[in-house]
Amino acid sequence: MFSKSEEGARTARLDRDRGLVEEARRDPSRFDALYRKYLAQVYSYAYYELRDHHAAEDATERVFMQALAGLPRFEERVDAFLAARAATAPVAAPLPGAIPAAETPDMTDASTFRVWLFRIARNVVANERRTYRRRPVSSLEAAAEIHSPDDVVEAAAAREAGTAAWQAVARLPEDRRRAVVLRFVDEMSTAEIAAILGRSEGAVRVLLHRALRSIAADLRGQLN
Amino acid sequence: MLGNGSREARRTELYLDGLIAADERRAQEVPVDMDLDPAVLLAARQLRDGLVRIHPSFRFEEALATRLANGAARMKAGLPAGDAAPAAEPGTIATFRGLAAAGTAGQAEAEGSAAAPAASFRDIWPVTAFRRLPDMTTGPRRPYLVGGVGVGVASAAISLGAVYVAWRYSHPASGRMGRAVRAAHGRSSHSGRRSGVINGIRGVVS
């Protein structure tokens, strides 16, 4: 455990959005900065989950409107975040040849506001999925068109890789897909994903590992 | 003690951390854990390249920014943020406020007047909603038309009215009453400040 002063020092570093959040709580018009910062992340998450631009826009709008309305009630739950991490952190000795734990971005890069925002997003997207379930959805391959390097060959290769990745991810079970999107698209740490999905870090680690193995098998099958 | 599965999952996590960190540093070299399954490494790299972050359209971004700004203004006024009306209904007239208006609004806010909640909104309305447009509103407020068929019809009707007024002044009535009025005033109908204004209108509408 941390001493009081250590904990204070760590918590002060924890939420990189603390300044913006405090400003927005004092003056709601300052919420704009948080909105601009997280728009693409929230929209991407919604789009990868719903596979439809219009549905993703609806979900994104709901997320930010709810976040704005709920901001006065938002509490920076750093203690809970730390406790969850402490409870699930591995106690084993460092693995031989592994990357030092100091390089992991978990603690210094975490944002409890982002976790809170994505919890809202998870709920909103779940509701949207129920709404859009009966409707046909457009292909996720459209996202591969985002790649537009000048080199035509490189563009084609990137598009092919993107399409293959899309298809493989789309075939994953819901929880694994969600974890993969948060990890690769939104570049979240395991701790953040765990907090958003309401699971332990160990469970998220296993989810991601299994997802990668499934995707590897899928890609291998496509190659063959 | 960690089981084999957890151990491997932990290795994968560390590899992914390294992969993303290398991406942020724009490093060419990516850390490799030789004990990890090469197929997993390949899949991770493919996902990193294939799963791009998507930005919504500029139009959507700005429309939502305006809605949020409306919600923020409502919150400051003590109302629920969620009841904010859509940003700009087609065919409505929105006030396009400039820096001059912002100054007076800020003063009102400082004085804590009843207009303060709406006034504090001035710093996001022009900057956020139209932040990529040049500021054309250093003068006093003027209405800004936001599309719509109804607005076009109304605008055309106003123009026709102006044309009629200008024509009527340039062709004074030849009836007895008109002659009597001109005789009483003893001057032309095209003199003075008023005719200057009318000529201005004629210049605009011709």
- Which ranges of chain A are low-confidence, i.e. pLDDT below 50, for 5 or more consecutive residues? 1-13, 87-109
Helix content of chain A: 55-70%
Mean pLDDT of chain B: 62
**Subunit organisation of the chains:** heterodimer
**Based on the structure given, which CATH architecture of one domain in chain A is correct?**
Orthogonal Bundle
Please name the CATH topology of one domain in chain A. Answer: Rna Polymerase Sigma Factor, Chain: A
The H-level CATH homologous superfamily of one domain in chain A, spelled out, is RNA polymerase sigma factor, region 2, helix turn helix motif
**CATH domain class of one domain in chain A:** Mainly Alpha
The largest pleated sheet of chain A is described as: none
Order of helices and strands of chain A: HHHHHHHHHH
What does the main sheet of chain B amount to?
2 strands, antiparallel
Number of helices of chain A: 10
How many helices of chain B?
Answer: 9
How would you describe the overall organization of this protein?
The complex is a heterodimer of chains A (224) and B (206). Chain A has a domain of 135 residues: Rna Polymerase Sigma Factor, Chain: A, CATH 1.10.1740. The longest helix of chain A is centred in the C-terminal third of the chain and has 23 residues. In chain A, helix 3 runs antiparallel to helix 4, helix 8 crosses helix 10 and helix 9 packs across helix 10. With 224 residues, chain A is mainly alpha-helical. Helices cover 68% and strands 0% of the residues of chain A. Chain B folds into three domains: 47 residues; 89 residues, no CATH class; 55 residues, no CATH class. Chain B contains nine helices and two strands. Chain B has a two-stranded antiparallel sheet. Classes of the chains: A mainly alpha (224), B mainly alpha (206). Chains A and B meet through helix 3, helix 4, helix 7, helix 8 and helix 10 of A and helix 1, helix 2 and helix 3 of B.
